[in-house]
Design brief:
Number of strands: 14
CATH architecture of the largest domain: 3-Layer(aba) Sandwich
Number of domains: 4
Shape: globular
Mean pLDDT: 81
Oligomer: single chain
Radius of gyration: 27 Å
Number of helices: 22
Strand order of the largest sheet: 2-1-3-4-5
Largest sheet: 5 strands, parallel
Strand content: 5-15%
CATH superfamily of the largest domain: P-loop containing nucleotide triphosphate hydrolases
Helix content: 40-55%
Structural class: alpha/beta
């Protein structure tokens, strides 16, 4: 994470903010005037910028204007005196995230900077330009047709609809279409419309103005603005709520949209690529999807084949995923024996390429030797004595179930392995052994953000233990844990911990 820049000609203000943010383990970089900060912006950027409004030389508003022209998504907090409300209004009009009135409460200042930091990290995660497209591997005739289509569309801005079963690689194809298009140097922004709650999806797509609804404490750019000049990939478009389909249709029709709570039309220069695993024609007939939007999206359709239709690609995909998994974990690459590889090629894989990738992650972590034999595969995937043609019968019993059933093979195999540990050994396991077991299982399942999930669990357990020890007194608990009062308050709120009280 980049440092927080503090720009103020008052030594005491810089000092107190530096110390407060250091207690929160946040790095800072300070400047005594706006000109020095502008010069530094030519070669570096902060995560958040906090600037006084009136300084010797250039003002904070000039700095704000410079930042917003070059980095529109960078949150800027403007500090101002109580008597300078006119400047505060000007700061908001210039795109400031928030203003901080002097003299300020230090705890509130840190809380405000934390909010700006969260916003900055969110922007960074979705607005990065794709510089390297993951490999799309395939020698099967069906995949060669896909490659040819990507080539024909390489100089086009036309809307594309990608269809295919879950796990076939629709987002990879969308990224390839972007990479080989005239928009390749501009952002590629992806949004799974099925993963965002209905009441938040409109704001996520189109952004919102400050005060548009409860909790809208700052203006936020939506995905259309983030993708300006580039490509917006809308995954699972078939699950988009009907009322939002109308708004999307308008953007595709005339290229304009409104932020939530906004009154000024915004121009959208964005190429839309949509994807779905559903039959949109059936959803149109059932009244669940607008027919006019369907025709707007269905300009060029690319159908991705299932893994069952390209079995000849399973060996090269397996080799690629095993190498990728080994590289991520820093271990030697596992090799599949010929019988094991032939067996994998005979499976149905209803979870498609994603399911095969998860299996390769499992193999990298759990298989005992460097050469993977048939018995080394998950127990519910391979019977004790495999028979010719038995793979189809096995689909009912475990590994080859679709990813979204919640009963995937990896989790079952991992839990089975965990359950087989002898009781005597379990009694002597340390918490680090247990952590290793949980982390291994999560990685084998193909879960993402493993460190974040385990870290939150770790923090929750430790903070709860400290609160029990101090009978709920959070300030005392913070001292025992060696963290700041603001930090434990924030974490208690974020983790939803009950029973805390002020000392």
């Amino acid at each position: 994470m980049k440092p927080i820049w503090i720009v103020d000609d008052d030594d005491s203000i810089r000092w107190v903010l530096e110390k407060a943010l250091a207690r929160e383990n946040l790095a800072t970089k300070s400047f005594t005037n706006a000109r020095d900060a502008m010069t530094a912006l030519q070669s570096d950027t902060p995560q958040v910028l906090v600037s006084d409004i009136r300084m010797h030389g250039a003002s904070g508003l000039e700095l704000l204007q410079t930042v917003k022209a070059k980095y529109p998504g960078l949150p800027v907090i403007i500090m101002t005196a109580f008597s300078d409300l006119e400047s505060a209004v000007a700061a908001f009009q210039g795109g400031a995230f928030e203003y901080l009135a002097k003299p300020f409460d230090l705890d509130k200042a840190v809380e405000l900077i934390r909010r700006a930091l969260d916003e900055s990290l969110r922007e960074s995660s979705v607005e990065q330009t794709i510089t390297e497209t993951p490999e799309i591997l395939g020698q099967a005739p069906a995949m060669q047709d896909v490659f040819r289509a990507i080539g024909r569309l390489s100089q086009s801005h036309v809307t594309v609809l990608i269809t295919g079963e879950s796990g076939t690689g629709k987002e990879l194809v969308a990224r390839a279409l972007h990479k080989h298009s005239p928009r390749s140097q501009q952002p590629f922004i992806a949004l799974n419309t099925a993963a965002i709650p209905k009441d938040l999806l409109e704001s996520e797509l189109f952004g919102h103005e400050r005060g548009a609804f409860t909790g809208a404490q700052a203006t936020r750019r939506g995905r259309f603005e983030q993708a300006e000049g580039g490509t917006l990939f809308l995954d699972e478009i078939g699950d988009m709520p009907f009322d939002l389909q109308t708004r999307l249709l308008r953007v595709l029709s005339d290229g304009h949209f409104y932020r939530v709570g906004g009154h000024q039309p915004m121009k959208a220069n964005v190429r839309v690529i949509a994807a779905t695993h559903q039959n949109l024609e059936s959803r149109v007939r059932d009244g669940l999807f607008r027919e006019d939007l369907y025709h707007r999206l269905n300009v060029i359709r690319l159908r991705l084949p299932s893994l069952r239709e390209r079995r000849e690609d399973i060996p090269i995909l397996t080799k690629y995923f095993l190498a990728q998994s080994a590289n991520q974990l820093g271990v030697e690459v596992k090799r599949m024996s010929e019988p094991a590889l032939q067996f994998l090629s005979s499976l149905e894989f209803p979870g498609n390429v994603r399911q095969l990738e998860n299996l390769c992650n499992w193999i990298t972590v759990m298989a005992p030797g460097q050469t993977v034999e048939l018995p080394d595969l998950p127990q519910d995937l391979v019977p004790s004595h495999p028979l010719p043609g038995a793979s189809h019968a096995m689909l009912e019993s475990g590994f080859a179930r679709p990813r979204d059933t919640g009963g995937g093979p990896v989790s079952e195999a991992a839990s089975a392995g965990s359950a087989s540990v002898p009781t005597a050994h379990k009694e002597s396991e340390t918490w680090m052994n247990l952590l290793d077991t949980v982390a291994t299982a999560m990685l084998a399942q193909g879960q993402s953000e493993v460190i974040d999930k385990l870290g939150r669990s770790f923090e929750s357990v430790v903070i709860k233990a400290a609160l029990r020890h101090t009978h709920g007194r959070k300030n005392d608990a913070a001292i025992r844990l060696g963290i700041g009062r603001n930090t434990i308050t924030r974490k208690i709120q974020e983790l939803g911990i009950d029973g805390a009280k002020d000392d």
